[in-house]
Amino acid sequence: MNQFQTEGNRTYYLKIRRSEEFRVQAINETGNRIPPEVWKPYLYFLDKESFFGLTARIDGLDLLLTPAEFVRLFQREAHHYVSFSGQTPEDETWLNLAGKVADSLNDPKLWDHISVDGEDILIDSAYGDPEIQDFLSDTIKHQLRQKGLSTAQLPFIQHFVQQAGWDGLPASDDYVMAVQLGEPQDDAFWSFKVVLRSKRGSVYWTPSKRRMDEPFDKVLPEKWRNHQQEIKEKQMLILSLCPSVENYDEDRLYHAEWTDAEVLEFLRNDAEILQSFGIEVSIPSWLKAVQESKIRVKANIHSPVKKASVVGLDQIVRFDWQFSLNGHELSMQDFQQLVAENKEFIRIGNEWVRVDSNLLMQLRKMIEEADDADWTIKDMLFQNVPEIMLEEGADEEDPLIEFHLNRSLRTLLDKLLDKRDLPETPIPENLHTELRPYQKTGFDYLVFMREEGFGLCLADDMGLGKTVQLITYLLHVHAKKPEQPSLIICPTSVLGNWQKELERFGPDLKVVTHYGSARPKGEDFQAFLQNEKPDVVLSTYGIASSDAEEIQGVHWTSITLDEAQNIKNMYTKQSRTIRKFKGDHHIALTGTPIENRLSELWSIFDFINKGYLYRIKQFQENFMIPIERDDSEETKEKLRQRIQPFLLRRTKKDPDLQLNLPEKQEQLEYCPLTPEQAALYEGLVQDTVQKMETLTGFEKKGLVLKMLSKLKQLCNHPSLYLKEPYTSAAEILPRSQKLERIVTLAGEIAERGEQCLIFTQYIGMGHLLQQAINELYGHEVPFLTGSMPKNQRDSLVAAFQNGKFPIFILSLKAGGTGLNLTAATHVLHADRWWNPAVENQATDRAYRIGQTQFVHVHKFVTIGTIEEKIDALLTQKQTMSEQFIQSSQWMTELSDSELKELFTYNL
């Protein structure tokens, strides 16, 4: 065992999960999970790289570690009185591997067995155990990321790391070695040298011009001559980091004359590598100042049409080009001459200016294409020119290209940006509902973007009807009988909801689900689609990822991702796989396009319009770093303007929508039973139906009520029915999609800064919700029950109203009346009370006088069970008097055949 343990030590047992990174939990000797804040200091107590744990990342009860961090932390001796051990043999194997990988990273022989293939680092089979090769490859990738380097740069540093290690060259007490780039004299060549300076000095030494070619032992000053072999070896290692440097004499200090192109290549690649290993790089101060200088292109854009009366992204535009460089105006002839000379650095007046000759050629090509071709607004949106979406005269510092639209084109573009005056699309006659005005706008937008060939993100707030807008769109699209079906990918917990909503609002659509162990695979999948000819295929994220080959074999009429934040982590296999799926139209539905980081927005846009937000590295440089690190308002606005045409976002607080929305919206949330629940459900029904046949009327009533309670608990979670204790969220949630959906929804509501009430009839269900929400989201969730003293009850109500906590669980009997909880904008009914008046009284804790916000009511129903059937009966019996449907007693009056049908589980 990997226990660095002495008598009297405290031991933490680690549960280790690995995907793209490691998630580590600690359990003490009594089996309790321990928050990372408690045990983290003992793990990091010697770790200078993380400032002794200051930069550690925590997610709930998980400590998040990259492979490189995992190896670094678990290769060394543990704390002198706290030890760490694997909870299981598999966890222990990971800990042992950390030591093996650490040994390999310090083994010079390793680098003779490494090669690079695209983004992959390959280690040949001749080196080490197969079990550590993948781990070792991932660790090296993270080592590169920590130094700001890419996998493609690994070949340039292999020799250096093999000889000097990842920490770089050992420091000398007497001198510092550096590389120096000297500016050209009289427009001639640049000079590039390896130079030395005293440890405490700032002036670089290099041999005089006439002695440059003499060997080390002749030219080195006396104070450094004893170090000549060391200096010679360090120079070889430094130059090994410079791909630009090829053949040279190893016995003398290196010097060379470089062209503009060679200097630019050094600045783009070599300098970054040298600095990542702590090598000093000296370049002229003016060169640092102009590294980002660009030629400025201004295009006055005109349209031959004086008035843009209708939206059309195919509107042809004309350009009037103007150029300037650092404030100096250039004619088209000057610009063409710059391109022809192919120089990187030029003098303008008394100053040096760097220009990117490659970029100049790209600009010339773009200008020629624009002049020769009939460019449209649509063409321009996908060029790397986000400034097109800036207002006329916006203050943008030195943009690459600045577009100025004339009034008619600005009006045209505004329609797209603001979603105003979109072409009207008739609502399909077979839609079984009415669209609100804002939903009609969403439908028109979906159709318009499809016709223009653009994907989009429909990011309306929860409860505004993204589902019905998409169903209307699907009815419109499939009325034309396309050859291929549309695909909807959603979380498992809402799969049943989609089935019901499609059946309710678009019954003419033929819908099939690709889910479950009996789903067709391989060639059978294609045959299934050909035979069934569905309009819509419903699947889940997990199935879509595991059945990627089948789904990638179809070019879908449309692909919709519901809860699209499920692909927010661009590095996961699920996200990478789903972003590769192909369809005529890509749509993302989400109420939260950004939950934590801008990379989540990039991932969604990479699915809907690949390439529009650039490659991820460029997106990081252009947007993520300025916004997330520097909080740049200017960059935020630039990003907002760039994504605006492809994102439709309405919230419940929008004044234009409030007039069209009800003050309260009730929505059924359908959840399927898990296989475990279904088996228990059928067993209980069969056993009880047999007993009913032998009982008198009074006894039968008692049995029905008892069974009703058991079935309702079973629909909530099998552990309530089986009377099992709580274990962990990871073990509890997969056993009930209803519980998982409630916990997830409550967590999302809290993360958006809103508050919600959760009503349940069962104390056990309340405790499951409490513990799972706390474990996953870190919220302390109070549970108001009938046994709670009045003072405590009043105190909790006041605290909730004052926003002290976002989620409040209430027993339906204890919290159903007499409370004012208008701070809540969501009410979640975990289990159904068969008297609608009782449910309404509970809902009215939030929806009452004093409530100024829209209230969204979610009623959770398990598909095919008594919950769904009772809900249908209550809907049918809405004309009954309230005196009749006062409780569940009315169900005992049903006949035996009606009861049997009521209780039977229908898949």
UniProtKB/TrEMBL annotation:
The keyword Hydrolase applies. It holds the Pfam family SNF2-rel_dom. GO terms for molecular function: ATP binding; hydrolase activity. Residues 447-611 form the Helicase ATP-binding domain. PROSITE patterns: HELICASE_ATP_BIND_1, HELICASE_CTER. Keywords: Hydrolase. Residues 738-903 form the Helicase C-terminal domain. PANTHER family: SNF2/RAD54 HELICASE FAMILY (PTHR10799). This is RNA polymerase-associated protein RapA. It comes from Planococcus massiliensis. The gene is rapA_2.
